[in-house]
Design a protein that fits this description.
The protein has 577 residues and is an alpha/beta fold. The protein has helices at residues 47-57, 67-73, 79-85, 101-114, 125-129, 131-134, 150-162, 199-208, 246-252, 263-276, 292-305, 321-330, 345-352, 359-371, 390-404, 427-430, 444-450, 456-459, 469-489, 495-520, 525-536, 560-575; strands at residues 10-14, 62-66, 91-94, 120-123, 142-144, 172-176, 179-182, 227-230, 232-233, 259-260, 281-284, 311-315, 334-341, 376-383, 411-417, 437-439, 462-464. Helix 1 (47-57) links the parallel strand 1 (10-14) and strand 2 (62-66). Bound molecules: iron/sulfur cluster (SF4).
Length: 577
């Protein structure tokens, strides 16, 4: 007899940035070019996986459904019909990154309309910042605040199941007939080892719900399964526009200092991924923030574990050469992601505080990495920084040429606009005048509306004393076109790919002009319809080819035997239920 599948205790839904993006004509521009997601921002936060892992250990069933990805991949995918077929005990929706302000609220509204009795819970950093406003939306029942909500979420689900009061659940904002209640934000764990991020659960989820697509983190993940292992929550640095800076965390997540995952737990997680995939594994956060001993222990454990996957190290500052040599000794395949944001010291200082490295020191570090076995070195620059002018952006592109002249194709450069929003809660958001910013939105509702503007120039929630929104856009297309030419000239990308990117930049600029003139005439439905198809062609990459961000493929990315073993474990578990 065929057994029915278990309905989840929690259905986690990830919404697109703008819910009805398939029907709208919005030129989102290159705001997502430097992340694996498209402009739909279909990548769900890592928190989905830690929540699923934690609740699984507590005996609960969780299903992740990446609605954004399903909607991207099929124009016919019908969200209300899909939600109507589900019977979850509760629904969780992430509003972690603010660009989801429209989609997350709209998906919550649909869930509430179809399943009025099912509690809708929202969480993530943006939810935390806007919790008092968010809870006033009729479709939102609960908001969980903070950067670590797994145990409070478990308590909430148990209380809802048992009909128990929720007034003692930490970090919870909720409402009843008596009004809005904000429980104290007291759950701020000082260790991260209580929770894991188990990749095998995603495979199990696929088997359990006979659904290969819904749990995938982003479009193209099957082809480029980059795994991410978080190493830290919070940060010791003070970047002006970052919602995870030290000062921001103190207020927003009540985290007074960063907390690090123990080397043993971190490397165990790397091994868990390595059993499943041959793809690269990114360590999110700079290991050296926790001190040299911590970083050394991680490296030593990686060496003992004998992991063969490429390990991507994120560096927030320039490490001593000895650290790079230590990586090289312990990890056979490794690469580096480094984000100086600007090559100009004054701009970097304005963004990062007195940056503790010079551009010359950075170059020395890059050269040292290239002398070693570093397989790939990506350097990221940003547009929209305090003190940064159009000329400064142009000089940064000149500087990229200087780096290309080192003459090693393992090194590449990227430049993109900061956006579409300065993070809520960041120092730039809280004190815009002090850092030379002008904001166009402050509330959640204002951001939700910004997302519906016709071009990314009007979606940006900021401009600076040094560049208007228009100039930010101009500087971006100009920098992108010049950097693309340099990449072709210095062999970073093929002539063919370069031509494609150049055509994409030119077409995006032309579309922008047409949208602007349509706007000036007051806009009309016919123009919208004509532009929609063209705009969607630019929904993946504008200023660079997104494939540049991905790693080259080596045969099959997955360890099929392990996938089969996990599925077998699930099937065996089911027959004993
Ligand atoms: S952007 Fe700056 S403050 Fe934010 S996480 Fe990175 S280093 Fe830390």
């Amino acid at each position: 007899m065929r057994r029915s599948r278990p309905e989840p205790d929690l259905l986690l839904l990830h919404a697109p940035s703008v819910y009805d993006f398939r029907e709208r004509a919005i030129l989102y521009g290159p705001v997502s070019d430097m992340v694996p997601s498209s402009t739909v921002f279909e990548m769900y936060p890592l928190g989905f996986l830690t929540i699923a892992s934690y609740l699984h250990d507590q005996g609960m069933n969780v299903r992740i459904v990446n609605l954004a990805l399903r909607m991207m991949n099929s124009r016919r995918f019908d969200v209300p019909a899909f939600i109507a077929r589900q019977a979850p005990k509760a629904v969780g929706i992430d509003l972690h990154w603010l660009p989801h302000a429209h989609g997350a609220l709209e998906v919550a509204r649909i869930v509430k309309e179809i399943h009025p009795g099912v509690p809708v819970i929202m969480g993530g950093l943006s939810s935390t910042y806007f919790h008092r406003e968010l809870i006033t939306y009729p479709q939102v029942d609960f908001v969980l605040r903070g950067d670590s909500t797994e145990p409070p979420l478990h308590q909430l689900l148990v209380a809802l199941r048992d009909g128990a009061p929720v007034d003692r659940i930490p970090n919870l904002t909720w409402k009843d007939a008596g009004g809005i209640h904000v429980n104290p934000h007291t759950y701020v764990p000082t260790t991260l080892d209580y929770v894991d991020l188990r990749p095998d659960l995603v495979v199990e989820m696929m088997a359990r719900y006979r659904d290969l697509e819904s749990a995938l983190p982003f479009n193209g993940w099957w082809r480029n399964p980059i795994a991410a292992v978080f190493t830290v929550k919070g940060c010791a640095y003070e970047c002006v526009t970052c919602g995870s800076s030290q000062t921001t965390c103190t207020h927003l997540t009540k985290r007074q200092r960063p907390v690090f995952r123990s080397p043993a737990s971190l490397v165990a997680n790397v091994e868990a991924f390595a059993r499943l995939t041959k793809g690269p594994i990114a360590l999110i956060g700079d290991l050296r923030q926790a001190g040299p001993d911590h970083a050394s222990e991680v490296l030593e454990r990686l060496r003992s574990a004998g992991v063969r996957n490429e390990i991507i190290f994120e560096l927030f500052t320039v490490p001593p050469a000895a650290f790079l040599r230590e990586i090289d000794r312990c990890v056979p395949h490794w690469s580096i992601e480094f984000s100086p944001e600007s090559h100009e010291q004054a701009v970097r200082n304005a963004q990062e505080g007195e940056a503790d490295y010079t551009t010359e020191a950075m170059e020395e570090m890059l050269k040292e990495a290239l002398r070693l076995r570093c397989e790939r070195l990506d350097v990221f620059f940003m547009i929209g920084l305090p003190s940064q002018t159009i000329e400064s952006v142009r000089r940064t592109v000149d500087y990229c040429e200087h780096l290309f002249q080192i003459g090693d194709k393992r090194l590449s450069c990227f430049i993109s606009p900061m956006g579409p929003f300065i993070d809520p809660g960041s120092r730039g958001f809280e004190e815009p005048g002090r850092f030379g910013y002008r904001l166009f939105a402050r509330t959640l509702e204002e951001h939700r509306r910004l997302l519906l503007q016709p071009t990314w120039e009007h979606i940006l929630n900021y401009e600076t004393k040094w560049m208007t929104r228009r100039e930010l856009v101009d500087a971006t297309y100009d920098a992108a076109a010049r950097l693309n030419e340099l990449k072709v000239r210095y062999g970073r990308i093929s002539r063919r790919r370069g031509n494609r990117v150049a055509a994409s930049i030119a077409a995006a600029s032309a579309l922008r002009a047409r949208l602007e003139s349509g706007l000036a005439r007051g806009g009309d439905a016919a123009t919208d319809a004509a532009l929609k198809g063209e705009i969607s062609r630019f929904s993946m990459s504008t200023v660079c080819d997104k494939r540049e961000l991905f790693w080259r493929r080596r045969y099959s990315r997955f360890r099929i035997a392990e996938v089969v073993r996990i599925m077998g474990r699930y099937v065996a578990g089911r027959t004993h239920e």
